[in-house]
Amino acid sequence: MASLKDLRMKIVSVKSTRKITSAMKMVAASKLRRAQTAAEAARPFAERMERMLGTLAASLAGQSGAPKMLTGTGVDKVHLLVAVTADRGLCGGFNSTIVRATKAMAADLLKQGKTVKIMPVGRKAREQLKRDYGQYMIEGFEQLGRKGIVFGEADQVANTISTMFDAEEFDVCTVIYNKFKSAIAQEVTRQQVIPFPVPAQTGAADAGAKAIYEFEPGEEEILAEILPRNLATQMFRALLESQASEQGARMTAMDNATRNAGEMINALAIKYNRSRQAQITKELIEIISGAEAL
To answer: Which of 39, 42, 82, 91 is catalytic?
Structure first.
């Protein structure tokens, strides 16, 4: 049984931990507001560009002069999985959900006889994937967005992916990240960015509603500019969504930790009071017994 001194020290230790988790919760809440605003502001442009290029991919499918980044290489033997996590922990299941989704997708592709390459974006992705899938991992990125995600960082990741695609190092690229829903909910998203997926047609009305685009000065020149920019835009959106999800998950995790610390302090205080009362009662009994003996 723990002594009164041990219980007092443990209560002091848990109180200190509660102060730390409470402070981390407030910091995460402050960062969440900025990250959420940035993520929501980036969605409309990214979604509109994705729809436009999806329509282009459908209209240019099968044409010999269509850019490979838009329509693909014609095969899907080599898959590049870009796993976007955080560099830090203490954010609940935020990182582990992305790792599990990446492992599941990689295992499924390997069963189909495909070749898999994994690019970790975030230190936790590299640390948690290297044990089981270290042989499939390539050079990734860490320490992104330490002072907030900027477009230049997303452009750096996109340039690396684009260079690999031009060198024919993969056929299909999928980005796996957490999409921000709320402070307590994130959705694991698997977004194929190369080639751009052709939107499914649900009926005859969709088949007749295709947009017609006129290119000026020329189709090749415009697509050569738009496609890499769209890749950077989608990566920028994924990084923003991931950062907002990270701060929401961390705020929730620290709130739960603070609440649990409070419950532990109450339980320890009860245990301390009972032990102290039992010790006082024992001493009184000893005094009374000694007086009666005399």
So the answer is: 91
